[in-house]
Design a protein that fits this description.
Blueprint: H1 14-21, E1 32-39, H2 44-59, E2 63-70, H3 75-87, E3 92-96, H4 98-107, E4 113-118, E5 137-141, H5 147-158, E6 164-169, H6 174-187, E7 193-198, H7 205-210, E8 218-221, H8 225-228, H9 231-241, E9 245-247, H10 250-255, E10 259-262, H11 265-280, E11 298-302, H12 303-308, E12 321-324
Parallel strand pairs: 1-2, 1-3, 3-4, 4-5, 6-7, 6-8, 8-9, 11-12
Antiparallel strand pairs: 10-11
C-alpha cells in the first residue's frame, strides 16, 4: 500500500506540542497548523485524496503537522478518533469518507471540518444543502452527477445481453445506499434489474461476490469503502467467470476493474485542501464555502482487464475512452 509516508505523524515533543497549542487560525506562512486526518479504511482512492489534500496545503505555503488516523472500518474507532482530535484541539479536521465526517461532526460544532470522498452530503445529514454547508463543515463530494447515468448507458449500449446487474455493497454505509438508489433509478426502463448482496466487513466480499455467479451478467462495484478495500477478490471472480466488472472510480480501474466513469481522487482531495487553506488562513469560514462537485469526468477502460474478462474491445470506444494497461 502506498502513501506510508504520511501515516501516523505524531507530535514528538513537549516543545512542539506547546508550539502547536499556541497556533490557532491566525494565518501566516510562519505558523504551524495541526490538522487531524480521519479515514475509515485504507485503499488507493482514499489514500490519493489525502495526498491531494496535503499537496494543496503545501502549494499554499502552509506549514502543517498531520495526525493521520485510520478507523480500520470500525465505526467505534471513527468516533474515538474524532473525540481525540477535539481533545487535542486541532486547528482543522480533514474527514476522508462519510462515516469519518459524521463522527467528526458529532464530536465538534466548533473545530472546522473539511470532508471529501463523501457521496451524498445532504442525504447523510452532513450539510443542509450543497450551497449552504453547516457552520463548521464543508468539503468535496465524490459523486459526479453524470457518473452513474453514463455508466448505466454504457452498459445498456454495449452489453445488450445483460439483464441482471450484480452489486456488492455495505448497506450500513449511507454513501453506498445513496449510490445503489441512483443506479436503480438510472436502470428504470432499460430492462435491467439489480441483484444486490450486502456485506458488513471486507472479509465477506469474496463470498458475497461468488453468490452472484449465475445470477448477474455484469458486476458494478460503486465507491463502497468496505468492498473497494477488498476489490481484488471481486476482480478474481470477474476474471474467472468472464463477467464484466464496472467500478465507481478510476483507481479501481487501475487495480483491475474493466471500466469506470470517474475522476482522480487526488483532485477532490486537492480541492478540499484548497478549501481548508482558506479556512486556516482566516480568509473564509466553512459556511461560506459551498460543497464542491468533482471536475473532469472521464471514461477509463483497462485493456488487460477486458482480456481477462473476455470482453472484445470496440473501435468506437477509442474516441470516448482513455485506456490503461495497454
Amino acid at each position: 500500500m502506498k502513501n506510508k509516508k504520511w501515516k501516523s505523524l505524531v507530535v514528538g515533543s513537549i516543545a512542539s506540542a506547546l508550539l502547536l497549542a499556541g497556533c490557532g487560525n491566525s494565518g501566516g506562512d510562519e505558523d504551524t497548523y495541526k490538522v487531524g486526518v480521519t479515514q475509515i479504511v485504507e485503499h488507493p482512492a482514499l489514500d490519493a485524496a489525502v495526498d491531494g489534500f496535503q499537496k494543496a496545503l503545501e502549494d499554499k505555503g502552509l506549514k502543517v503537522e498531520y495526525d493521520v488516523q485510520i478507523a480500520q472500518g470500525d465505526p467505534n474507532n471513527n468516533q474515538s478518533i474524532a473525540t481525540n482530535f477535539v481533545g487535542d484541539n486541532v486547528d482543522l479536521i480533514f474527514a476522508n469518507s462519510t462515516p469519518s465526517a459524521l463522527s467528526a461532526l458529532n464530536a465538534t460544532s466548533e473545530i472546522p471540518i473539511v470532508f471529501t470522498s463523501v457521496t451524498d452530503p445532504v442525504g447523510a445529514a452532513l450539510v443542509e444543502a450543497m450551497d449552504k454547508p453547516g457552520p463548521n463543515i464543508t468539503g468535496t463530494t465524490d459523486t459526479h452527477p453524470d457518473a452513474i447515468p453514463n455508466t448505466v448507458k454504457f452498459i445498456t449500449d454495449n452489453f445488450p445481453e445483460a439483464k441482471k446487474l450484480g452489486m456488492v455493497y455495505n448497506s450500513g454505509e449511507q454513501n453506498s445506499v445513496a449510490q445503489v438508489e441512483l443506479v436503480e433509478k438510472a436502470l428504470e426502463g432499460t430492462g435491467i434489474t439489480t441483484e444486490l448482496v450486502s456485506v458488513s466487513t471486507s472479509a465477506e466480499v469474496k463470498q458475497a461476490t461468488e453468490s452472484l455467479i449465475g445470477k448477474a451478467d455484469v458486476f458494478y462495484i460503486i465507491t463502497d469503502n468496505t468492498v473497494v478495500s477488498a476489490l481484488e477478490s471481486v476482480i478474481q471472480v470477474a476474471n474467472d467467470e468472464d463477467i464484466p466488472l464496472f467500478v465507481g472510480e478510476l483507481d479501481s480501474v487501475a487495480r483491475g476493474g474493466f471500466a469506470a466513469y470517474g475522476f482522480d481522487y487526488f483532485d477532490i482531495g486537492y480541492e478540499a485542501g484548497e478549501m481548508a487553506a482558506q479556512i486556516l488562513l482566516g480568509e473564509k469560514e466553512a459556511t461560506e464555502l459551498p460543497v464542491q462537485y468533482p471536475q473532469n469526468l472521464k471514461l477509463q477502460i483497462n485493456k488487460q482487464a477486458a482480456e481477462e474478462m473476455g470482453i472484445t474491445l470496440k473501435s468506437e470506444w477509442d474516441d470516448i475512452a482513455e485506456y490503461v494497461n495497454e
